[in-house]
Amino acid sequence: MIGILDYGVGNLKAFANILKNLGFSYQVIKSQSEIESASKIILPGVGSFDSVMEKLENSNVLDSLSKAALVRKIPILGVCVGMQILADSSEEGKKRGLGWIHSKVKKFQFETISNRLTVPQIGWNNIKTKPASILFKGMEEDPHFYFLHSYYIECENSENEIASANYGIDFTCAVNQDNIFGTQFHPEKSHHNGVQLLKNFASI
Which segments constitute the Glutamine amidotransferase domain (predicted)? Predict the structure, then answer.
């Protein structure tokens, strides 16, 4: 059973609809026992880094979630801010992240006139993927996904970077450490590529 974690952020229904249409067993989960029964977990995320971490800390499931990721080692997928909280810290706030992928979250800074792009990045962007990543199996070259963000993740270890995009600068937009995955873009809003990505994750 794939658990879609309800900790007060994210578009749970969009993920649920896609998984239902793909024929995968899923459940919106919010308790320790539900986390313990899940075989995979999706961490949606909309909002600021500190507010999302605070909601997660106040949900009383953080210990169970950590055990699922680090002890049971079930597949975990963080999306948007749900990916950013996998990092150690963020320029957006003062709270510590989960630290499951050693990295920092940084803000887009476009200070020169020639490179003054609008922040946040809103809309579609093509990404470059590492061929070996299971998340992007069955997709065309340089698939496009929907983004909505002002911050991006910077990994300490480049081996954790499985996809990148360009928005004024090249930035990492998907990460992986063992059983833990993250995407800065929104697969639940990215039509056929997003459906394929969620199918790939659900099939791990």
Answer: 4-201
Residue span of the structural domain in which 28 resides: 2-202
> Structural domain tally of the chain?
1
Domain containing residue 153: CATH number = 3.40.50.880
Host H or E run for residue 90: strand 89-90
Over the chain (204 residues), the average pLDDT of each successive run of 10 is: 89 94 96 96 91 89 95 97 96 95 93 69 95 92 95 96 95 97 97 97 96
188 is catalytic: yes
User: Residue for token digits 């698939």?
Assistant: 143
Report how far apart, in Å, the C-alpha atoms of 161 and of each of 61, 105, 113, 177 are: 28, 13, 30, 9
Q: Which of 34, 80, 155, 173 is catalytic?
A: 80
Which pLDDT does position 8 carry in this prediction? Answer: 79
Q: Is 191 a catalytic residue?
A: no
Q: Which residue among 34, 92, 161, 188 is the active-site one? A: 188
80 counts as catalytic? yes
